[in-house]
Write the structure tokens for this entry.
Amino acid sequence: MLGKDECNDLYRKHAPGAFRRAQRMLGNISDADDVVHDVFLALFERYDQYRRASSLSTYVYAAVTHACLNRIRNRKRRAGLTRARQLAGLAHDPGHGPESSAAARALLERLPEPLAEVAVYYHLDELSQREIADILGCSHTHVAELLSRLSRWVAHQESSACRR
Amino acid sequence: MPTLNQHEECCSDLVLDSYFAGDLAQAARLDLEAHLEQCARCGLRRDALLAQRVAFLARVPSWESLAPTPTPRLALRVIGLGSATLAAAAALLLIALPKAPSLGVRSKGRAQLGVFIKHDGHVARAQQHDRVRPGDLLRLTYSTATRSELAVLHRDARTASIYYPLAGQTVSVEPGRDVALDFSIRFDAEPGEERLYGLFCAEPTPLEPLRAALEATGRLPPLPDCQIDNITLIKQLEDR
């Protein structure tokens, strides 16, 4: 069981990055605060389980991604915009309007689970395939396959949208 | 383990977050520091992330302050979600301002930053060069007669930070008088001057260059399209 000082030490090291990513994915401070709270509560409660991981930063990235994707899906938003570049609209903090961010979140809401996760790491975090493989605990080849499936999924969505 | 190979040679935010957290092995840390020395793009990104870290920890300095219990933090969430009237009520829960904010009332004259300090359970509007103590709680309001692009920057003896907003540029605010901003800050234990700058600009304005200039030179660069209201508080360890 972690003491108060240990909890706050972990929090000060990792929560700022967790909040930044959560706010970028969710689009508002209140939801991002909730995600950070939930992620760190889980971390503190099961810290013995996680401290053996190769990097706590990597763990926090994965946990924030899962929590945000769950929250996005729970919102049941259906914006109907499906262009791949909308994902890139989340890639940098300033300068992107609320419309593009909302559309990107709507796209994440609709993506199947493994593709949504890899889309966040690749388009939002701009991680390398090797870094994504580390977070997902899979091979570099598998990440390349997931990215390929993501491209096909987006292309299919675009062609479906054109037919409508 | 994070590496330096993201998008060819530049480092990812994951690498920088690991660096800030002290998670990088020594060899990786030295590689990163060497890269940051020579790569302007990554150096700027490091500075931007550092500024965001400072702003976040200024807003939510500890794990307890984030917990969803009946604490001031909960009041902050209400502010973020509610209407202007609800925000005013929530502000009173957080710090019972001596005079209720008169939202929606047009103020006359220059745009102003309002500074309220909660000390030993009492709240008072701070004046120029007022004394504050570590642990005092700071709450800010703004007053402006016209729609403005607002930001609040802070400078202490060593660093400058962006207190408001969290994003990298000013945010548009409606006219109002003593409109409470949705965060509060508890002063740390380091004595010295605490300078606050309220920026009321005509156009959206990127903040990181201003923060960097404030940190490097101790003053803001000329901003012809912005009104600047500043107040300096003196933080000291002994009782006021």
In short: The CA atoms of residues 152 and 164 of chain B lie 5 Å apart.
